[in-house]
Amino acid sequence: MRILIRNGTVVTATGASEADVLVDGERIAALAARDSGLADAWSPTADRVIDAAGRYVLPGGIDAHTHMEMPFGGTFSADTFETGTTAAAWGGTTTIIDFAVQAKGTSLLSTLDKWHAKADGNCAIDYGFHMIVSDVNDTTLKEMETCVDAGVNSFKMFMAYPGVFYATDGEILLAMQKAAATGGLVMMHAENGIAIDQLVAQALAAGRTDPVQHGLTRPPELEGEATSRAIALAKVTGSPLYIVHLSAAQALDAVTEARDAGQNVFAETCPQYLYLSIEDLARPDFEGAKYVASPPLRPREHQPSLWRGLRTNDLSVVSTDHCPFCFNEQKELGRGDFAKIPNGMPGVEHRMDLLHQGVVAGELSLARWVEVASTTPARMFGLYPRKGTIAPGSDADIVVYDPTARQTLSAATHHMNVDYSAYEGMEITGRVETVLSRGRVVVDAGAFHGGAGHGRFLERELCQYLS
Ligand code: DUC
Ligand code: ZN
Ligand code: ZN
Ligand code: ZN
């Protein structure tokens, strides 16, 4: 199948240009400047011509942080790999990197097998895995090497959740030494869980049980402290470090200082930290439970710092941390005890649109939008230039985006398998029109043409910022 995308504005991390794109099979065959006349020559050989006049032509989004079917306290995050990757495609994301979760007492390799069994044959778009390491021991450390060889070379650890995922500083040190030796990348959930657990116990003992307590018992200082500690451990071990879901100005300050000193420290933030706040956690009638995620939504004052961090590249990636739990049956588990509310929010469908609002508002340039949503995640996680750009030879993961269309976000119209939208009623300028995944049109003019099983597992190269 040959597809010609004509008359659009191609936007990559290096800028925008008036160009036409020829897709042949699963890959991009050629790009031609508008005035070259080449598209006229290609047109008769194309099976389909897409007129992208007035549209942006973008590399497909890469969401490097999702949790499909994630086990949590006896339940699972509500999107399966099929529903979650389908929703991603609707929103212009053509690659996800999901987290395989090591349970304590199990091995990394059996965990990886389990996640392959969930995902393989079920994804509508391409996907890779990170590994959550929750049990540091000699076997785990040895298996990290095998994971790296299998293209799963990024390892998330937790300074939060004592007794569940929590790793001690000593365990983190050991894993970082292994990462440094193998080329792996440690990803850190940086919140001081030991201190947080005390604050949570005090709140519950005092009868403060509402969702807003989730935010009040996880103060930004304890994200800043954990971030600094992770950076120190990374420095001592010579390991690179990637801070996931950074939400607080204090944590960003620590990252900025380390980067300015030349350390290989990277960080991502998420749309919820750019647009939502602790005021949402304080919504009445238990509605705040919809907004429980960790780290928690912060006071609005943090948001300008995050946007600035995205411009200065101290924040280099925007991922969603998509981890949906239904309000009705699942969030309900924490009524009367905020500490039992499943942690996570839906978002995989709306990342490209929400970041486009940053372009509309003048917070981000067009090129920077593409860079934080696609190109840098590709480079960070060893997928570039196969993914993350529009260039000859790259996979034909392409989004045709209408920058002037209007839409209103709502659970009534989204495709995620969850009964609420964190952005219910939000008006968006811009809309995904057509999406190609490896040369196949999967979304077009309001209809889905993809299917489970089209998406393939991506064996990733090492982080491309380190070599
Ligand atoms: N961290 C995540 O990255 N996702 C869900 C919950 C959490 O703590
Ligand atoms: Zn986390
Ligand atoms: Zn800097
Ligand atoms: Zn997460």
Question: Keyphrases for this structure?
Answer:
about 475 residues; alpha/beta; Urease, subunit C, domain 1; TIM Barrel; 2 domains; ten-stranded mixed β-sheet; eight-stranded parallel β-sheet; about 25% strand; binds dihydropyrimidine-2,4(1H,3H)-dione; binds zinc ion
The counted number of beta strands is 20
Contiguous helical run count: 14
What is the molecular shape? globular
Roughly what percent helix?
25-40%
Protein architecture, described:
- The protein is an alpha/beta fold and 467 residues long.
- The protein has 2 domains: 2-58 and 389-448, Roll (Urease, subunit C, domain 1), CATH 2.30.40; 60-380, Alpha-Beta Barrel (TIM Barrel).
- It contains 14 helices and 20 strands.
- The strands form 3 sheets. Strands 1, 2, 3, 4, 5, 6, 17, 18, 19 and 20 form a 10-stranded mixed sheet that branches.
- Helix 8 (220-237) packs parallel to helix 9 (249-260).
- The longest helix has 18 residues, at 220-237.
- The radius of gyration is 21 Å and the shape is globular.
- The model has no long low-confidence stretch (mean pLDDT 98).
- Bound molecules: dihydropyrimidine-2,4(1H,3H)-dione and zinc ion (3 copies).
- One zinc ion binds at residues 65, 67, 321, 323.
